[in-house]
Protein 1
Amino acid sequence: MNIVEIITNIAYLVASVLFIYGIKYLGSPRTARTGNFISATGMFIAVVVTLLSKSIISYELIVIGIVIGSLIGTIMSVKVKMTSMPQMVGALNGFGGGASVLVAFSEYYRYIFDEKHQSLPVDINIAIGLSIIVGAVTFSGSFIAFGKLQELISGKVIKFPLQNAVNLILIVGVVALTVYTLFDVQNVWLYVVMIAVGLVLGVLVVLPIGGADMPVVISLLNSYSGIAAAMTGFVLQNVMLIIAGALVGASGIILTNIMCKGMNRSLMNVLLGGWDNTGGSDETGTSKRMDVKSVEFEEAAMIFDSASSVIIVPGYGMAVAQAQHAVRDLANILEKKGIQVRFAIHPVAGRMPGHMNVLLAEANVPYDKLFALEEINDDFSNTDVVLVIGANDVVNPAAKTNPQSPIFGMPVLNVEQAKTVIINKRSMATGYAGIENELFGYPNALMYFGDAKDALTKLTNELKNY
Amino acid sequence: MDSILMLIIIFVLAVFVGVELITKVPPTLHTPLMSGSNAISGITIVGALLSAGSDNFNLSNILGLIAIIFATINVVGGYLVTDRMLKMFKKDKGEK
């Protein structure tokens, strides 16, 4: 190792340490912004040191690439609405995966067609294969997820005949192909086919998955983008890429796990598509006629005015209606009246982990008023009013009471234990699981129909008159 | 020691570090955690730079260029949007 290489490697080590510190600081809202800055500094160091490397001869393409990429990245990050954050993260995952495929393939090409090094070592060849496959799955899968979240593609569960068999054949096939390349390294088409199969696999795996399962999919693809980066690290024999990729891979897997637990489902069950409706949703509970009571804003305002404690439960409906500011206004007026207001956030509310928290933060709701399921679930019983906004399955008591229900066993918020539950929804339509919510027929439950933004604004204006 | 073996050891240890760090992140920060860690996975940019900047101009340079664009979107977009989100997280001023 000459002196330049030693300095380069020390700089890469520093960058790796900064990534670790950055994630550590992301662990608390007070230090998170600093953490993100530390991590960005690590990235900056990594890029600058690489640019100084003697194997970089020409800078034209690099400058062009960085300028175009920075422009697109900046515009995306400035323009994106907070409600569209899941799509944004989905797209970013995709770009990361795509970059891994391209780098791995380009490295392969350099090994085979550059005069410098003719032979491709077996370990690097395997790493190239894995980098290409994982990267390609991440790339196409992320853009399908993006399409679903952006509603360019149906968010419904899409099933096609023999989908699991086809996926299995593709997975076995692509692994076999990777092994085969070890014996036919010079055949560039094998690698092109590998990319193609990876892309098809990404589409086929994500396409069947329904909209409300997107938190799991986005987390999983986040993990894949990290693993792809780590594999690229093996290709380049670069320790920093391996460390950074492993950190991201671990992060995605943990979030995936949390999301699956939040739905009481296994990852397999989510990936295979849709709720297990073997019992048939029609037999479970819908035979009983539900006695649903509904209220208008005048009556709802009266109920809120006489409460002393309120818990608000936001769901994806709040994001769809862009109602987070209306929610904040309502919370403000309630607090002005001396009413305690807290928010209960179910782990899978929204379309990605922490989606509701970001929306409420955007509307200036302090984060210490937001409580996770396990922190607040025992408090519903001594709460006067619970307001459910555009959430359904996550407040369905059937998960606790009805062993026949497809969502039985899923952790739910105990909203029915409050004195009064007001549920704001646009209609009586079922939630993602496609089942009736028996909560709506409970004696202490009141439906308040309407678009979340309109309904809450009316309610807030009415409360101002008290 | 074989270099591939050493790299695998580093990978496994880094996964453990990641697991330790991330289990401590509260649910309220899960979205910024995702976009922020996502930006880190844009580290592939290092490989992209090496591909695009190598001497004889051929396919690998073009692939490198596209890879730089993708990775830069990932890095710049990821860090900026994370910062935008984190700026919004505020504690209640009324309480200590």
Protein 2
Amino acid sequence: MIELLKLCGFSEQEIESELPRVGKAFNKLGITVEDIERGKQRLTKYYDVELKGVRKALRLIVRELVDALLVRDEGMKKVIYGFMAPGFDLLSSALVTKSRDVCSIHHSWAFQIVVGCIFGKIEPILEEAERKWLKAGMVAHCANLKTLVGPIVLGLYPKPDLLVTTGFLCETSPKTVDLFHELYDIPVWYVDACQDRTCGEYPEPSNRVASSTAKSLERLAERIQEVVGFEITNDMLLEVQDAKGKLNEAFGRIRGLVESSTPLPLSPAHENIWMCLNVLALSIDGITEATEAVDTLYEELQERVAKGLGVVEKEAPRVLATLPMGQTDPRLEYLACEVGIAIVATDRNLEVSIKETSEDPYMKFGIGMQLGAMHMPPAMRIPLLIEGCKKLNIDGVLDRFHVGCRAVAGDALLIENAINKELGIPVLLLEWENFDPRVYKHEEYKRRLEIFKTMMIVNRQS
Amino acid sequence: MQEERLAIHLRERPSQLKEAKNKGVKIIGYFPGNYVPEELIYASGAVPLCLINGGDSQPAEAALSVVPQVICPFARAQIGERLLKENPYYSMIDMLVAPITCQHLKKVAEVWEYNGDLEIFKLGIPHQHNNDFELEYFTDRLRVLKDRLQVFTGNKITDEKITQAIGLYNKMRELLKNISSLRCTSPSLLSGLDFVKLNHASLNADPAFMVDFLDSVYHELKDKQQVTKTDAPRILLIGPNIGYGDYKILELVKAAGGDIVIEEICEGIRYYWNKIKSKDDLFKSLAKGYLVDRVPCAFMRYSTRKRFDFTLKLVKDFGVSGVIWYELLCCETYDSESYFFSQEMGDRNIPMLILESDYSTVDTGQLKTRIEAFIEILRGVME
């Protein structure tokens, strides 16, 4: 355990004080000695834990999970849980900055990284959800949701005082939350926005949609205030947004370095760590720590780049992947590196840049929510992808579609057709589940990635 | 006689519409789910045409060149129908009003928007209406739709025209409700299959014709009405969708000796339970009638309990002895809800059979066996 915590960036002093808590939390998860060994092996295989920045990031993630698992045992007064809830992280950070009596859990990101990516033990959690209302099979329920249902049903995560979700991208999370309310008597809340932007409005964000998003998020803040008993002011939120802005800038520097360096200095398997770190329910101090972790990593990567070191060969084909990396399983990204493919970017990070935003924190969020490719209809998303491919000098697109998410999976074939037609570069279409390691088929994926690589090389030469 | 009258009208409807189109009348398509106020389209002088074809595997499969299989077969069928160009309704529309309801139907609108060959109006449907601004949002969108329709058709939409349209469609709802309610006491006057077909017809037929026709049907059935007892188990059909042509389940139930006496279906049939209450602000009235005053579909927030309570009332009012839950493959919200409904129905000793379909024909034998076995169970319970 101590070695594992060291790999996750815990200092010796911190290990001494935190070991009982971590042990208790891991016991709750059913983590055995064998699991710890496997965890260490997976950490060193899939992640660059020799990089201090990576370790610092992992530490924050492990710490968040431990806190969440022990929240009731440690007498925390109120637990607010937000799932698939962009915007909730903003309120969460304000909450935990203000009060130590409130535990705010955002999503299952930390759970997914630790239980899934590090220990490789997410399957029983998914299966538990499948025994409830998210059955396995052709219906293709999103496994992300299963990581909400499994831990609560198994009593790993505490029954929250308020369970929050949003309908920005889909209605399946709200439906699951609705069932939690009906079957487990958990108080729930929904933040919504109509997804009725038209391509005529592109690239400008719709003021109509931003405004309704802002109002809906504001109502959530009012509801949370009732639960926790103190006010969430605009100043508190602006302070969080400011801190998060700095974190985002730090991520931007890493992204810029990764996108522009050859050979690729860092495996794309780390992408899920950044995504997680970006939305953890961290206090302002926690966000500052996260920013420091990313800045540290940036310096370390700069050194790598200066020495010409990387995780794939220098001339490896450059790939843009749709969707973030596997959230519970880093094997596909690791395999891509092994095969010699450089996944330099994902469409999660493709955004429209706009000059003006708002002084109101809710409105600011409402505008920001519309800028990313994944929140756009194909008539907006596809041009952004094509533009991204051109800008990044991409050789091929890994068009994996997360079957559990109809909003993004529905575009996969349109993307393939458009990229082929507009850019003439190879597209690997991969049916995929972003949160379920059971879909991973090593031999098949290896064969397909190798062919994909050959196609890109041939295409580049021609 | 009545059936023949309707059949002739529906057969001639495409050519009637083409003729109207040639004279400059706009044909406005919309997706089902009962969130698009046909009244507004009608008041603009255009013809509202519901796109509801389903049940046939060919269009659903044709769409697989554009969207993956995780998009539900009904949504895929809409894409496929337009690709195949065999159904005149899908080719003749000048504009689509797409209610942004579930991700599946939303994706159809997005695909058509991406293709860029049709004027599209995305009608944002707030998925909850607990907050004042959500109803306001929908009301505003209806006003924008009105403006768009005026420009598109070149006709002014007056309050008077909207009021008339509301009256016409309310009459249609009232007649459908009256006809449906006859099934509370008189089995076999109208099977579930017949009622669904009647309901489907109301979405494509000329509304004035349909009101007249439904009125005749209602009076004819009312005269025949008698309280009788049969041994056919009375069944409530629940589901996300029944497309025009998706009659396999209804036919199998009928053939197995079951009697579907009431349907709680979100899309594909007209919601007739409530009327639009037209008050001073007609847009607010429409918004409230379409969004608030109705039993919410599964994609709506807080809908599970509301729909369950409503279906329990249907079970009681229609003397139902069993529930058939018919969902389309990959419909996640209904699939999730089926877990809750089956538990709650089980607690009340109401047998429930869950069926799903992707419109393929290969499962017919299996469905037949399961439906027959279910009806036998219901008969056993009745004894």
